[in-house]
Structure formats: C-alpha cells, structure tokens
Amino acid sequence: MDTVFVKDKTFSISITQDEIAERVQTIAREMAQDLEGINPLFVVILNGSFVFAADLLREFNHPCEVSFVRVSSYEGMQSTGTVTEVLGLTQDIKGRTVVIIEDIIDSGTTMSRVTEILKAQSPADLRICSLLVKPDNIKVALDIDYRCFEIPNDFIVGYGLDYDGLGRNLPAIYTVCE
Ligand code: 5GP
Ligand code: MG
C-alpha cells in the first residue's frame, strides 16, 4: 500500500517492510558482535517499541534478557517542568550491560531522562538503540549507539508507532501527507 488512511489523515509510505527488515537485521548483527558473551539486558520502552524489539531481538543470536518498561511523564509541582518515571523495571541493573530499545528519538528529552534514571542505578554499560531518529529536532546531547533510520521532522506512523492509538499494526512506516 502506498497510502493509508489513519483516523482522519492520509499517510504515504516512507520506509517499506523490506527496507526495515534489512536495516533491523544489520543493526542486530552489529549489536551481536559488540555484545557477544556479555548477556545484555534489553530494556524495551513500551508501547511504541514492541514491533521493533520483537524483530530486532529475534535477530540477536546470543544469550540476553529482555525487560519491558513504560515511561510516564507528568508536569511536576515545581516550575522545573516535566518529571519522568520509568515504570516496571524489576531487574537489578547494577553492573549489567543495559541496552535501551526505543522506537523514536525526537527532541531527545524522553531518552535523556531515561538514561539519567537508569545511570543512577549503576549499570556497567548503558547503550541506546533507536529505530528512528529525527536529527534536526534533537535538543539535548545524546550518544545514540545504534540507530536504524534518520528521518525528517514529519509525523510518522506504523511499525509500532501510533497516531492517537491507531496505526501500530501497519507493517511499514508512513509519513503524514501535507
Ligand atoms: P522526545 O522526548 O524524543 O521528543 O519524544 C519521543 C516520543 O515522542 C516518542 O517516544 C514518541 O512517542 C513521540 N513521537 C515523536 N515523534 C513521533 C512521530 O513522528 N510519530 C509518532 N507516532 N510518535 C512520535
Ligand atoms: Mg516511545
């Protein structure tokens, strides 16, 4: 399908299923070379990363553990702005090699807070893996170890990412029209 209609907007294809599969396999192999013999803990950020993580980790052919977390953000009482929490991490990450798996890094604010929170628990190594990065929009310094695609600042949907809850099941990545 070249175009799809989600809720009230038309989206056109931007990264095909085949392109995603090829790139995800390449990144998984790169990670496998870097992390062989280490038993990394993959921390998958829900909801958007579920499709990416499922494909990526099935291509990672070494022992590893996987944990699923949610990130919640709310306006704090102070004027300092948004407060972020990482919910659902039950493993002790002290001394572990941890790889955060994220769907998209936009301004980078979320990832920056998540790394701060996880770093406070003293992992031996903390890496970031993101399916998509919008490099023109990043507002913070972030060391992104693995990225599959860089995309422009347009809104995208599919392959786990939603538009108002819809479109996560689309097998390719689509960009909003106009
Ligand atoms: P950041 O904190 O990096 O600005 O925002 C990251 C979050 O914004 C992502 O986890 C995702 O939920 C959302 N986001 C940013 N850009 C897009 C986009 O193009 N499409 C969708 N569906 N979500 C996006
Ligand atoms: Mg996300």
Radius of gyration: 16 Å
Low-pLDDT windows of residues: none
Structural category is alpha/beta
Q: Counting H and I runs of at least 4 residues, what is the number of helices?
A: 3
Which hetero ligands occur in this complex? guanosine-5'-monophosphate, magnesium ion
Proportion of residues in extended strands:
35-45%
Major sheet size, sense and barrel closure: 6 strands, mixed
Tell me roughly what share of residues is in helical segments. Answer: 10-25%
- The overall strand count is 10
Biggest β-sheet: strands ordered side by side in the sheet: 5-4-3-6-7-8
- Name the helix and strand elements from N-terminus to C-terminus, one letter apiece: EEHEHEEEHEEEE
Shape: globular
Distance between the termini: 18 Å
The chain-level mean pLDDT equals 95
Structural descriptors:
globular, 3 helices, single chain, 178 residues, 4-stranded antiparallel beta sheet, binds magnesium ion, binds guanosine-5'-monophosphate, alpha/beta, 6-stranded mixed beta sheet
Summarize this, please?
By secondary structure, the protein is an alpha/beta fold.
Model description:
This protein is an alpha/beta fold and 178 residues long. The chain contains 3 helices and 10 strands; from the N terminus they run ββαβαβββαββββ. The chain has helices at 17-35, 50-58, 109-119; strands at residues 3-6, 9-15, 41-46, 65-75, 82-87, 97-105, 125-133, 146-150, 156-157, 173-176. The strands form 2 sheets. It has a 6-stranded mixed sheet. Strands 1-2-10-9 form a 4-stranded antiparallel sheet. A hairpin with a 2-residue loop joins β1 and β2. α1 packs across α2. The longest helix is centred in the first third of the chain and has 19 residues, at 17-35. The two termini are 18 Å apart. Guanosine-5'-monophosphate binds at residues 48, 103-111, 155-157, 161-162.
